[in-house]
Amino acid sequence: MAPSEGISPAIPKISHLKTEECELPLIDLEGLITKMCDERERQACCAAICKAACEWGFFQVVNHGIKPQLLRRMRREQVKLFDMPFEKKATCGLLNNSYRRSKLVSRWGSPTATRPNQFSWSEAFHIPLTKISEPACWGDFSSLREVINEFAAAMSRLSGLLAGILAENLGHPKEAVEGMCDASTCFLRLNHYPLCPKLLGEEESFGLVPHTDSDFLTILYQDQVGGLQLMKDSKWLAVTPIPDALIVNIGDLFQAWSNDEYKSVEHKVMTNNKLERYSTAYFLCPSYDTLIGSCKEPSMYRKFTFGEYRSQIQDDVKKIGHKIGLSRFLL
């Protein structure tokens, strides 16, 4: 199970009302990336990141150090990959058969799924970072391997920078979170949301069902189609895409480690019946035996390993059809 996958405890009915659009906090990282800003500017940028993590759980970054040319190459290779016939995608053996197709299939394969709003209309390739450097895993996809190798390295550097800033804000060394993470569990996910017809009388359907991410940080590169929505102040807000900006969101592990100072926010993707959508997500995850404990006292959560957390989510999904998440570990 991917760290980001999961559905909310109560599956919401899809609203047919127009969703309010929002502009996420937008943070310019140029000074941090190029080391050209003075200390006051650096502190202001770091404060903006931490404030967004506390108040929104989401923010967008520009001048993040990942060249637009690399982003374009990544997207071109991704489109070529998903343009292949389904039979080839399902049988090509890429990265030990990492292809996942969710169209009209419950995200969890749950026998309790009976309504369109319990399904995700999407397909994806899950790519563990440990597999990127293994040529034998890629077969005929050498150009894809080349760009993913460069893209993943850039995302890894950026996630380390952001995690370091968030850790320092809590009074810990900037290496604290990155030191817990392991390439064996960090991964990329290439997403494709095809055109979606109206399903069984529904005006809208999910490209990805509501969920929180089960990692420390997620960094998302999306196209300009839109469809990402997040929950804030008990209502869904549609995220307005910004060209070449990357979206960053806090995961469950950072919320637990920060003792709820940072927020892991529920989000979803809505489908589109006119345009298909592509996105690429990088997930910063620890090794399975990493112990997650709150970095300040009194702790709201008991200590748990990442492996235990994933296992509990899988058990909950199997038994009751949805993710419970952090509330399982409250003291």
Automatic annotation (TrEMBL):
<dbReference type="GO" id="GO:0046872">
    <property type="term" value="F:metal ion binding"/>
</dbReference>
<dbReference type="InterPro" id="IPR027443">
    <property type="entry name" value="IPNS-like_sf"/>
</dbReference>
<protein>
    <recommendedName>
        <fullName>gibberellin 2beta-dioxygenase</fullName>
        <ecNumber>1.14.11.13</ecNumber>
    </recommendedName>
</protein>
<dbReference type="InterPro" id="IPR044861">
    <property type="entry name" value="IPNS-like_FE2OG_OXY"/>
</dbReference>
<keyword id="KW-0479">Metal-binding</keyword>
<feature type="domain" description="Fe2OG dioxygenase">
    <location>
        <begin position="182"/>
        <end position="286"/>
    </location>
</feature>
<dbReference type="GO" id="GO:0045543">
    <property type="term" value="F:gibberellin 2-beta-dioxygenase activity"/>
</dbReference>
<dbReference type="InterPro" id="IPR005123">
    <property type="entry name" value="Oxoglu/Fe-dep_dioxygenase_dom"/>
</dbReference>
<keyword id="KW-0223">Dioxygenase</keyword>
<comment type="similarity">
    <text>Belongs to the iron/ascorbate-dependent oxidoreductase family. GA2OX subfamily.</text>
</comment>
<dbReference type="Pfam" id="PF03171">
    <property type="entry name" value="2OG-FeII_Oxy"/>
</dbReference>
<dbReference type="GO" id="GO:0009685">
    <property type="term" value="P:gibberellin metabolic process"/>
</dbReference>
<dbReference type="InterPro" id="IPR026992">
    <property type="entry name" value="DIOX_N"/>
</dbReference>
<keyword id="KW-0560">Oxidoreductase</keyword>
<dbReference type="InterPro" id="IPR050231">
    <property type="entry name" value="Iron_ascorbate_oxido_reductase"/>
</dbReference>
<keyword id="KW-0408">Iron</keyword>
<dbReference type="Pfam" id="PF14226">
    <property type="entry name" value="DIOX_N"/>
</dbReference>
